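User: Study the fold:
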Amino acid sequence: MARKFLYFIALCIVIYLAGRTALQFYPEQLTRISFTPSGGFEPEPALAANAYADPAMWLASPALGEKSPAAWRPDGLTEDGLTEDGPVLNVPVFFVHPTSYLNKAHWNAPLDDAPARAIAETMIRGEASAFNRSTQIWAPRYRQATIGAFVSDKPEARQALDLAYRDVAEAFGQFIAALPHGQPFVLAGHSQGSYHIKRLMQERIKGTPLAKRVVAVYAIGWIVDRNRDLPAMGLPACERPDQTGCVISYLSFGDRADTTMMRSAFARFAGSAGATGDQPAILCSNPLTGGTGGSAPASANRGALVPNVDMTAGRIVPGYVGAACAPDGTLRIGAGPDIGPYVLPGGNYHVYDYPLFWGNLRSDFQVRAQAWK
């Protein structure tokens, strides 16, 4: 059984590496061919109204205890300068994982797709774990859009994201129903997860009593336009470390990075704003300062989570990289460290948005949770 499990993990890694290799050596047009499903969109019925009352529909939840991937803690958490002397926080976190379905067989991941689930759990372990001073981290399974949807101009891409969002919204409803009345909470995501979090703010939270309960929104790895998105979300950017009811967002790149594909992906799903051709005023939160804009040296980095090659374990390394918000709104990290094999073409550190600043995000969450009133 152990050997079969290792073979399975190896297969997941091969699939991920194959995708990265294609992105590395082919331009956007050929990438689209490599990852976009050739078949039509497959409409699926909405999940049952009480689907997320089933514990099996959650990849992470309080019911899982230490078995939750979000409960994982890296090596060196106390030895390498990032101490664990803070309190346990009674602030639930609703976390939406990034794209883990790398298959072009369908526009949306089947809920029973084993490789997609394994990768999603790995991402939750490396990202949502930054919030595990709270014992209440919820991360739903959902019929996520395939990775090819983000490089496709087909209408099926929008349909796939709409289907995925419906699942996320349904899960959020169950999350809120499980909380005591008035309890504050955090919304967090990465990449596709942040796309859904942003929409959730616009459609389910803005202008409702829930908005006053939001400690912070971590919409990392997806563009947040300060001029259009923030007003639509109903919350301002986080301008200082102890501010609450605000939004944190950034996209990590090396200093000489090419941001073309990232901007193209955003424009596809920006609605009429994207159609005008206007460049977004990208929100750049600096995770090393807790504010927006500016720069900070590597000495301000409380600890990057540096994973092993198969991302099954990791260690905390303080002072790993600095961070500076560039004029184009992206977060630049210098020449870029050799953190692992999943750096995307053009010096795009998208996969490592959370790990590069894991310790600072952990502290950021603590400070904002304790500041909330």
